[in-house]
Amino acid sequence: MKLKDDRKYALIFRAALKLVAKKGLSGITMGDISKEAGIATGTLYVYFSGKDELINALFAACRERSVAVSFKGYNPQQPFKPAFKNVWLNILKYRLQHFEEVIFLEQCYHSPYITAETREKAQQLAAPFYALIARGQAEQLLKNIDSAMLITFIIGAMNELVKQIHYSGIALTRSKINTSFELCWDALKA
Amino acid sequence: MKLKDDRKYALIFRAALKLVAKKGLSGITMGDISKEAGIATGTLYVYFSGKDELINALFAACRERSVAVSFKGYNPQQPFKPAFKNVWLNILKYRLQHFEEVIFLEQCYHSPYITAETREKAQQLAAPFYALIARGQAEQLLKNIDSAMLITFIIGAMNELVKQIHYSGIALTRSKINTSFELCWDALKA
Amino acid sequence: MKLKDDRKYALIFRAALKLVAKKGLSGITMGDISKEAGIATGTLYVYFSGKDELINALFAACRERSVAVSFKGYNPQQPFKPAFKNVWLNILKYRLQHFEEVIFLEQCYHSPYITAETREKAQQLAAPFYALIARGQAEQLLKNIDSAMLITFIIGAMNELVKQIHYSGIALTRSKINTSFELCWDALKA
Amino acid sequence: MKLKDDRKYALIFRAALKLVAKKGLSGITMGDISKEAGIATGTLYVYFSGKDELINALFAACRERSVAVSFKGYNPQQPFKPAFKNVWLNILKYRLQHFEEVIFLEQCYHSPYITAETREKAQQLAAPFYALIARGQAEQLLKNIDSAMLITFIIGAMNELVKQIHYSGIALTRSKINTSFELCWDALKA
DNA sequence: GATGAATGAGATTTCATTCAT
DNA sequence: TATGAATGAAATCTCATTCAT
């Protein structure tokens, strides 16, 4: 008896991400995805009930992975600024290394594929970031303003930074990274 | 024999923007656009040679309008910070009032519709912003780092801010605007 | 300007009926129908929103035509038996000449295509037959039993007769017709 | 190595009948049948070489069962009318209790699934009914006309009666049955 | 120029059948 | 034999574009 192959999910996701990065969300077809993944088109429907479900599942997976990686190595005992920088760097590195996911998530956000439910769940994943900001404010290191606004600033600037680095093709030196972080930190610090 | 009706361009653009904001770039069809614009599908092809051209033209138009409005009221005699804030506010207001265009531009950027040429031209429109940053640096008010990085920061943070405001539905008070600007200014200032 | 061509409905219906008679309801495809009708597959979707709608519409059309023709030449002044025979003959002739419709209606009845609504409407078309039976009972010419049962008997016997004639290929002589009618009449008469 | 499990045939047949009654012949898939039967899709192909064979086999089985039951309790010594009524009742009861088979047979008759051979064999099963009619004619109790026509009448009326009873949901009383039989008898009797 | 029906290539999806376990 | 994932041909349906009016 043949069992459902868990590696196929990864295979399909990788294929879809690659294609979206290349041709945009509006340019991918189920046929393209299956071909890229090296499986038959019909097989896609063994793993996902349709294109919508595939894209929603991939969206959720990308969001989760992205969050999961952010707090790697985070240690609450560590002083705030280095701990925060660690998270900031995790995010930056992840986004640069998985630029396809960044594009995919952005393209999805205003697409008809993502359901309200999926969107809702994605929102909830932000909780740890709010907690981190709250800690910085409690320690009087961060500006005492609406934490949503602070997060907005961090994420927005980071997004654009990642895109700029990706498209400019300019190598990202340690000093550039530090400059960028200080730019961000100057904005947030009390 | 009638002449091309200039108002139809606006009609078509407005329809396309509305639909992209609602259903995403991957969700719109020529049929949808014509219906929303209140004209026949065939008529679209009188004004645009095809879907690609329509989207490229709209993309270019949005970019141009967006830049044109940014420097409204800009007066080089004015001291830098208020002059800069004026531009910053122009951009913020425009993006909030024309949120559909923000979405559209974002969606386009990684779509196969936009040609390299269109992308190139869009890039060139950023020149006045570089000049503005250069002035701030010359006056030693802004950090003396890669101006592309500074612009990236400003635009990225602004984009996210606009989205947050739009989706949260929270009214934007004068004090919130000022807080946001100061956040941005603290990041940039020397 | 090209207008929707009313003859296309007839063209499509004729094609569908021909194919169902040949290959059964389970054997027809939208592609087959369009080819048989001499139009592009996409054109079918200009006239019907999908396969379901096409089949429901054809079902309704067949039912209506079948009923409409039944009372041709019916004259209430005429004595009951010849008036009744006239109707009976109308039905028999119509079904023999439009055998494809008989098959189609039968195939449809237990198919997932026909909606409850369509079924409902079809049911209502039987009213004139009930009225005719009621007249025969009022004149004490027909058995005074549940009129639904009488109609059931007439229609059931007729259906099978039509099939037998069609498949046996034996010519239907005037005398055979009369014999059949008398068989039916003997069953019904008081 | 296990042997073919005879109960599986019954399981498969039951599942197929249930589904055809619910969704029509055009609405069933091998997947549906296997799921309804509680077995794997692949297992269907252990018992039948394909969909066609499955349906032909079921068709033949239904026809055989239907005929076999008709003459239960038939005693040639018994006078004709009660003997005939006995057969008539056997058929009526069987069809009411196995309505799914009635639908299935009807649906099959004009489908491309049933082969000429299967159809042929089904035809031959009617022989005992012809013999019964011949006896009635020899005893000068039945009209002396083409026996095919008489059988057509009986079966057609019965079919419709069964459907009417099934769909109306009205309980079938002993008196209703008798009335129906007399209707039939009046038609046939010399 | 304006219309919208017509087109057919191509997208999504289904499903009978096969095959590895 | 039993399983159900895998397949790919074929079905349904969509949609950018054309064309007759």
What would you note in describing this structure?
The structure is a homotetramer of 190-residue chains. With 190 residues, the first copy, chain A, is mainly α. The first copy, chain A, folds into 2 domains: 1-47, Homeodomain-like (Arc Repressor Mutant, subunit A, Orthogonal Bundle), CATH 1.10.10.60; 52-188, Tetracycline Repressor, domain 2. Helices cover 74% and strands 0% of the residues of chain A. In chain A, helix 2 (30-37) crosses helix 3 (41-47) and helix 8 (127-138) crosses helix 9 (147-168). Chains in contact: A-B, C-D. The A-B interface holds A 20-21, 23-27, 103, 106-107, 110-113, 143, 145-146, 148-150, 152-153, 155-161, 163-164, 168, 176, 179-180, 183-184, 186-189 and B 20-21, 23-27, 103, 106-107, 110-113, 143, 145-146, 148-150, 152-153, 155-161, 163-164, 168, 176, 179-180, 183-184, 186-189. The structure holds a DNA duplex (21 and 21 nucleotides).
